[in-house]
Amino acid sequence: MQKMLAGALYRADDPEISAAHRKACIWLERYNSMLAASIAERHAALAELLGEVGAGVNIRPPFHCDYGFNIRIGAGAFLNFNCVILDVVAVSIGQMTQIGPAVQILAADHPRDPAQRRAMLESGRPVSIGANCWIGAGALILPGVTIGDDCIIGAGSVVTRDVAAGATVASNPARRLR
């Protein structure tokens, strides 16, 4: 677990890591049945698993994550249906950020070396999304990316590099628009 949290190579089948993932899966099964619940009821459930949940956070089920405890979401943030966060390391989402349906935020990574992949090793690189951003539907945010405050990420974009505050990016790979 310590290796995973540090972003070093680790095996996901480690008993401590597997137990944490199972706990999240049990929680996700319950949370994803709460679509008809009030925002307040869902917020209370989010606070049970996530590392930090600001006031007024709204995540519409279904939602998927690896562990939950590495996720920090600022006040007033909104995540639409089918958001996936692979949180093997820290993932932070700033206050008032709006995230469209089917967005994937991927902090999990895999070695480029084939021998390490055969050994079932993986790692992670933190992802940070600033305040007041708008992430369009189906966007992919890759490991290690930082997105500054007030950014717009176009629908379907693949964000492979950091995005400066106030920038609008789109495409695959995401590029700054004028």
Automatic annotation (TrEMBL):
Organism superkingdom: Bacteria
GO molecular function (one): acetyltransferase activity
Gene Ontology cellular-component terms listed: cytosol
SMART domains: Mac
Keyword vocabulary terms for this entry: Acyltransferase, Nodulation, Transferase
Maltose/galactoside acetyltransferase domain span: 1-55
Family recorded in the similarity comment: Belongs to the transferase hexapeptide repeat family.
Database matches in PANTHER family: ACETYLTRANSFERASE C18B11.09C-RELATED (PTHR23416:SF23), SIALIC ACID SYNTHASE-RELATED (PTHR23416)
Functional note: Acetyltransferase implicated in the O-acetylation of Nod factors.
Protein name as catalogued: Nodulation protein L
